[in-house]
């Protein structure tokens, strides 16, 4: 197992290297001049040129890459052109809101979707099953921002139960922290509830047709124990896989939700950095995301051992 | 079952309580959604308006410009001018102190003016007149001019970017092409560097030691009284609908620049007021690239100017009739240099006239590349209107969509449009940036040293030079009119009308200061 983890982590290095080179080149070759953006509307060409030199953008692409890559090897992602802060510090500031939102979203999605999927499979073809399938289609189809505005209108503006926007850090109190996350997490979780519920239903349905289920029932086990202990447990691997994919997608997919609910997370930082052509921040965030994806995939792979003892690494 | 219900009830009460607590309005904390993100904290290094507004929070100025556009003393108590207009002596008022407790001295002022004079266009112009500056006593500074200059006070009281803010000498000695790293001023608020999170929030607290002037606040002049303990800029809330929702719920107190589409909803909210604290507002502008065909031909530019009548731009972009007006002046209507001189080519034009002018210009069908920003709601409809009007006049138009920052990057390129250049872009200016022939970037005609578009015209430059030297107000006005007439004649750019973008605030907020930008002293929250 340890050898497997080391091997997988080592394998991430070439992936990160390719990502680093690709992102670096892509940013330099696409239109957009950070110096002109930083200078402001009334700046002269001379001022822009001075700013470009101060950012090191007047050097050759190869020289710029050499400096950036050298710093990267030393663990330094550089300083943001736009925010004048260390990129690692910026990512650190924005990590908590995104992680908190992603965690609560996945928690809601799993806690709601897995039971729904199991019940739908158990009552295959019945009204509950058909209703869940209908909800799934709706969940996939409704744009996140539409759902967000509906929830804000009803829950925040009409009922006054929850705040409209913003983020409170956990260190500032648990309830304000939770209150500011509930609506965004519900908004974001709907699509994952739809996805996970469908996969759970399909997996459990398949398991329910297996011989060991018939045996369990013949032994006189309760239906709850048959479904949960035997069917769901054996259907766990594909469900864990889809949850893992969901987490990975979620980290990069929070942009709209963060915008509508004014959550200062990594999604918003990425958009700001792209719009401002803040090369060091874009490079840093993408590298961070790449590493997070690799890590999540690794965790999902390791979780298979827990769900299916036959799997060995 | 009972336990589950109890748990649900506790959770619901707690969550509702948290929401209500958040919506509660602390009268000592002013929560503002500014018009953009704050990223650069050096208002001399950049001309960005957010940096300027940040500057007004923490720095003070030697002079201010009141709501009637008159320059009034601010940090300066008294001043004298020698009979030959070449020696200006200024005395600072007592009680001026930086946030670190050090007194403000003439040395600080001189270092600040020197740095500003390297960055700001008007400052650079002023420095061409300055022989030297000195500070004979800690509370006095002098400016020695090589020859009389007609805009010393206008420059020192310049209300918009770059504003000559006064910083401690050690900070102001930062090279002009490097951003400052210490944010200490002597203004009415203190910047909380430890709470600043770019893209999230910026926090300012009241400077209890600040001694305001006795006069009533007006524009950037007068007493800067502070009635709140803390001002929080919400930098994360940038979705237009979410901003309206947050204001309706009382989670924010002031929305600096609502989207025009939001006014209808805001006006029906009984808890919200619309306040136009900047009545001079903004001016839209279409800029021609004078270096590249077809706009390197003055007759083609005149035809385009004749086609670009203002009303369609204003109707499409602003839409709310009460917030816009046509204006024939390049220097903002209602200001000392505002006039209609020479504007007939545009203001009394029509499509037929534009077609005739274009036909007579020898236009060869070269497509006009217009840069269209898709992500800047305040100006994104202007390029579509320009394209349509130019097409109707007989131009071939290539409307290219991109984000605003690509426009900003691309407009700096002097190359032909096929190689990444451009022919026209459209933008907006706040009134103080364009209300004077020396500050208006679009009027400058020094060729490739000018602002993007790079017009070249000796007559304009000679007139601007005379304007800079002239000390008589009536003569300055006449020169400004002559400059404008010439600018229309050579079609430096097309003014496209003026608009206001009033702020929206909760009704318990009062004391807004009328002025050229967003300034947050004198505000009370009940």
Task: Please describe the topology of this protein.
The complex is a heterodimer of chains A (313) and B (526).
Chain A: H1 2-29, H2 34-39, H3 45-55, H4 61-73, H5 87-122, H6 127-141, H7 144-158, H8 174-208, H9 211-218, H10 223-234, H11 236-252, H12 255-260, H13 266-275, H14 279-307
Helix pairs in contact in A: 1-14, 5-6, 5-8, 5-11, 5-14, 6-8, 7-8, 8-10, 8-11, 9-10, 11-14, 13-14
Chain B: H1 2-23, E1 29-33, H2 49-58, E2 60-61, E3 63-65, E4 71-73, E5 76-81, E6 87-92, H3 106-119, H4 121-129, E7 130-134, E8 140-145, H5 152-156, E9 165-166, H6 169-172, E10 189-191, E11 201-206, E12 230-234, H7 240-249, E13 254-255, H8 263-267, E14 272-275, E15 282-288, H9 298-307, H10 310-317, E16 324-325, H11 344-347, H12 351-361, E17 368-373, H13 382-393, E18 397-402, H14 404-410, E19 424-430, H15 431-434, H16 458-469, H17 473-489, E20 493-499, E21 503-506, E22 509-510, E23 524-525
Parallel strand pairs in B: 1-12, 1-13, 17-18, 17-19
Antiparallel strand pairs in B: 2-9, 3-4, 5-6, 6-8, 7-8, 10-11, 11-12, 13-21, 14-21, 15-19, 15-20, 16-20, 22-23
Largest interchain contact: A-B, 59 and 64 residues
CATH topology of the largest domain in chain A: MetI-like fold
Briefly note the structural class of the backbone of chain B.
alpha+beta
The tally of structural domains of chain A comes to 2
Helix content of chain A: over 70%
CATH topology of the largest domain in chain B: D-Maltodextrin-Binding Protein, domain 2
Give the low-pLDDT segments of chain A.
Answer: none
Q: Quaternary status of these chains?
A: heterodimer
Task: Give a structural overview.
The complex is a heterodimer of chains A (313) and B (526). Chain A contains 14 helices and no strands. With 313 residues, chain A is mostly helical. Chain A has 2 domains: 17-73, no CATH class; 93-307, MetI-like fold. Chain A starts with a helix and ends in a 6-residue tail after the last helix. The mean pLDDT of chain A is 88. Chain B is an alpha+beta fold and 526 residues long. Chain B has 2 domains: 31-232 and 509-525, Periplasmic binding protein-like II (D-Maltodextrin-Binding Protein, domain 2); 282-499, Dipeptide-binding Protein, domain 3, CATH 3.10.105.10. In chain B, strand 7 (130-134) and strand 8 (140-145) form a beta hairpin. Chain B is globular and about 65 Å long. The two termini of chain B are 46 Å apart. At the A-B interface, helix 2, helix 3, helix 5, helix 7 and helix 8 of A face helix 1, helix 7 and helix 14 of B.
């Amino acid at each position: 197992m340890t050898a497997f983890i080391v091997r997988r982590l080592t394998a991430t290095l070439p992936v990160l290297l390719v990502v680093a080179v690709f992102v670096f080149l892509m940013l330099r070759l696409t239109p957009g001049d950070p110096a002109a953006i930083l200078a402001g509307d009334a700046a002269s060409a001379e001022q822009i040129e001075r700013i470009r030199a101060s950012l090191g953008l007047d050097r050759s692409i190869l020289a710029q890459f050499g400096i950036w890559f050298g710093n990267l090897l030393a663990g330094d992602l550089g300083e943001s052109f736009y925010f004048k802060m260390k990129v690692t510090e910026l990512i650190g500031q924005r990590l908590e809101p995104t992680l908190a939102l992603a965690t609560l979203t996945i928690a809601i999605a799993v806690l709601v979707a897995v039971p729904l999927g199991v019940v739908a499979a158990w009552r295959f073809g019945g009204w509950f099953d058909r209703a869940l399938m209908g909800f799934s289609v709706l969940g996939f189809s409704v744009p996140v921002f539409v759902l967000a505005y509906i929830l804000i209108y009803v829950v925040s503006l009409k009922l006054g139960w929850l705040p409209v926007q913003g983020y409170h850090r956990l260190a500032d109190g648990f309830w304000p922290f939770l209150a500011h996350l509930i609506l965004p997490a519900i908004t974001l979780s709907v699509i994952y509830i739809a996805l996970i519920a469908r996969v759970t239903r399909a997996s459990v349905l398949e398991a329910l047709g297996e011989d060991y289920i018939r045996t369990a029932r013949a032994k006189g086990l309760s239906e709850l124990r048959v479904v949960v202990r035997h069917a769901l447990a054996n259907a766990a691997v594909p469900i864990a896989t889809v949850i893992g994919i969901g987490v990975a997608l979620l980290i990069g997919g929070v942009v709209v939700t963060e915008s509508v609910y004014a959550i200062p997370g990594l999604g918003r930082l990425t958009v700001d950095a792209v719009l401002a052509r803040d090369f060091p921040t874009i490079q840093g965030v993408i590298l961070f995301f790449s590493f997070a994806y690799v890590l999540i995939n690794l965790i999902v792979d390791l979780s298979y051992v827990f769900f299916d003892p036959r799997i060995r690494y | 079952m009972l336990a589950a219900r109890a748990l649900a009830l506790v959770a619901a009460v707690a969550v509702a309580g948290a929401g209500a607590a958040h919506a509660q309005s602390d009268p000592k904390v002013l929560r503002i959604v500014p018009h953009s993100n704050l990223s650069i904290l050096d208002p001399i290094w950049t001309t960005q308006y957010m940096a300027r507004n940040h500057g007004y929070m923490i720095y003070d100025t030697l002079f201010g410009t009141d709501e009637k556009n008159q320059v009034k003393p601010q940090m300066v108590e008294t001043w004298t001018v020698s009979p030959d207009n070449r020696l200006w002596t200024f005395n600072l008022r007592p009680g001026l102190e930086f946030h670190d407790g050090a007194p403000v001295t003439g040395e600080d002022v001189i270092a600040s003016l020197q740095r500003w004079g390297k960055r700001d266009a008007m400052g650079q112009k002023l420095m061409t007149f300055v022989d030297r500056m000195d500070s004979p006593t800690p509370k006095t500074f002098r400016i020695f001019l090589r020859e009389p200059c007609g805009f010393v006070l206008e420059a020192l009281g310049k209300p918009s970017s770059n504003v000559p803010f006064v910083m401690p000498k050690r900070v102001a000695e930062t090279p002009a092409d490097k951003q400052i790293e210490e944010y200490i001023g002597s203004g009415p608020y203190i910047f909380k560097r430890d709470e600043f999170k770019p893209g999230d929030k910026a926090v300012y607290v009241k400077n209890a030691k600040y001694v305001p002037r006795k006069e009533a606040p007006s524009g950037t002049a007068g007493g800067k009284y502070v009635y709140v303990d803390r001002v929080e800029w919400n930098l994360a809330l940038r979705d237009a609908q979410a901003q309206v929702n947050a204001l309706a719920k009382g989670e924010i107190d002031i929305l600096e620049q609502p989207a025009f589409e939001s006014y209808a909803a805001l006006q029906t909210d009984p808890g919200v007021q619309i306040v136009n604290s900047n009545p001079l507002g903004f001016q839209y502008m279409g800029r021609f690239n004078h270096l590249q065909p077809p706009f390197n031909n003055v007759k083609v530019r005149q035809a385009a100017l004749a086609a670009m009548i203002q009303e369609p731009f204003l109707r499409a972009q602003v839409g709310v009739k009460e917030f816009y007006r046509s204006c024939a002046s390049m220097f903002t209507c209602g200001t000392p240099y505002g006039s209609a001189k020479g504007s007939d080519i545009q203001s009394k034009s029509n499509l037929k006239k534009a077609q005739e002018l274009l036909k007579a210009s020898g236009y060869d069908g070269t497509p006009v590349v217009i840069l269209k920003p898709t992500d800047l709601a305040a100006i994104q409809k202007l390029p579509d209107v320009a394209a349509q009007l130019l097409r109707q006049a007989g131009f071939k138009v290539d409307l290219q969509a991109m984000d605003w920052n690509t426009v900003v990057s691309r407009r700096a390129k002097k190359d032909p449009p096929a190689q990444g250049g451009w022919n026209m872009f459209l933008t907006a200016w706040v009134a103080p940036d364009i209300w004077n022939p020396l500050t208006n970037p679009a009027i400058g005609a020094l060729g490739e040293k000018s602002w993007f578009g790079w017009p070249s015209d000796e007559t304009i430059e000679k007139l601007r030079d005379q304007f800079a030297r002239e000390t008589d107000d009536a003569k300055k006005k006449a020169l400004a009119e002559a400059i404008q007439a010439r600018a229309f004649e050579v079609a430096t750019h097309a003014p496209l009308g003026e608009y206001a973008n009033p702020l929206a605030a909760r009704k318990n907020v009062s004391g807004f200061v009328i002025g050229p930008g967003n300034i947050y002293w004198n505000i009370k929250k009940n």
